[in-house]
């Protein structure tokens, strides 16, 4: 069985209000991106494909991959205009013989080994496995003017994370079908925000959620850095 992780780090991170892109911001002496790459490096994952902005490729190769001896990173490739372009660029770099693909946001530094094992067990049985956590808060659906339309039962609402894991054939079929209709999708204003949406909309395969972790945060705003630093410090203390 061969597993490949596609790590997405091509975003600009505009909401951080920082000259440094969020995936390269320092947390306890190491860039955000390092932490998830290290987690995959230390796991059963066979190889990693890192997708970055074109102008960041050499930095990632030298200052992250080589500096921290992340030997499972087989290649660093350029991302695209949208997230789905970056994912497709990563998929195209996968060699034959792959069984499962783990797609992960490089701005989520705290994926852990237990989570990866849960995802592995699920994808082998159901062909999909999406990290997620039950919503702690009540969620409201609103209209364009922010008037409440409905209140979903909180028991049915989960917050989606990454990694999102798929049988290789399933994710390839989904993305190929989506790109065949891409012009229509963009003209219709359909927004694809994660990989499970591609599988949901372009295959008949059901998407299965797996317990992620409330520590598996995505670095999006400056406030997230404070939480991330606390988690990183706790990790270092546990390692000591």
Looking at CATH, which topology would you report? Spore Coat Polysaccharide Biosynthesis Protein SpsA, Chain A
> What separation lies between the terminal Cα atoms?
33 Å
Order of helix and strand elements from N to C terminus: EEEHEHEHEHEEEEHHHEH
Task: Output the radius of gyration.
Answer: 18 Å
| Class by alpha and beta content | alpha/beta
CATH secondary-structure class = Alpha Beta
Give the overall shape.
globular
CATH level-two architecture: Alpha-Beta Complex
Proportion in helices: 25-40%
Give a written overview of the molecule.
The structure is a single chain. The protein is α/β, with parallel strands linked by helices and 240 residues long. The chain has one domain (3-169, 205-233): Spore Coat Polysaccharide Biosynthesis Protein SpsA, Chain A (Alpha-Beta Complex), CATH 3.90.550. 37% of the residues lie in helices and 22% in strands. The chain contains eight helices and eleven strands. It has helices spanning 32-41, 57-66, 83-92, 113-126, 168-180, 182-187, 195-202, 222-239; strands spanning 3-9, 26-27, 30-31, 47-52, 73-78, 100-105, 128-134, 141-142, 148-150, 158-167, 209-211. Strands 5-4-1-6-10-7-11 form a seven-stranded mixed beta sheet, sandwiched between helices. The chain has a two-stranded antiparallel sheet with strand order 2-3. A hairpin with a 5-residue loop joins strand 8 (141-142) and strand 9 (148-150). Helix 5 (168-180) crosses helix 7 (195-202).
């Amino acid at each position: 069985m061969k597993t490949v992780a596609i790590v997405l780090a091509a975003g600009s991170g505009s909401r951080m209000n920082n000259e440094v892109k969020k995936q390269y911001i320092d947390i306890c002496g190491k860039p955000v991106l390092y932490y998830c790459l290290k987690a995959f490096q230390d796991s059963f994952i066979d190889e990693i494909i890192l997708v970055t902005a074109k102008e960041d490729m050499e930095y990632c190769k030298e200052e992250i991959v080589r500096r921290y001896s992340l030997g499972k990173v087989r290649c660093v490739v350029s991302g695209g205009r949208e997230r789905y372009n970056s994912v497709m660029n990563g998929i195209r770099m996968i060699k034959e013989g792959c069984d499962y693909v783990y797609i992960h946001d490089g701005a989520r530094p705290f994926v852990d080994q237990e989570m990866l094992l849960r995802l592995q067990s699920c994808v082998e049985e159901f062909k999909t496995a999406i990290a997620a956590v039950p919503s702690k808060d009540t969620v409201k659906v609103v209209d364009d003017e922010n008037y409440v339309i409905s209140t979903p039962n909180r028991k049915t609402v989960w917050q989606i994370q990454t990694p999102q894991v798929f049988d290789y054939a399933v994710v390839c079929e989904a993305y190929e079908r989506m790109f065949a209709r891409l012009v229509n999708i963009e003209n219709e204003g359909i927004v694809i925000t994660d990989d499970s949406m591609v599988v949901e909309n372009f295959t008949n395969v059901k998407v299965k959620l797996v317990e992620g972790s409330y520590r598996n945060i995505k670095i999006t705003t400056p406030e997230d850095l404070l939480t991330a630093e606390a988690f990183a410090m706790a990790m270092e203390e546990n390692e000591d």
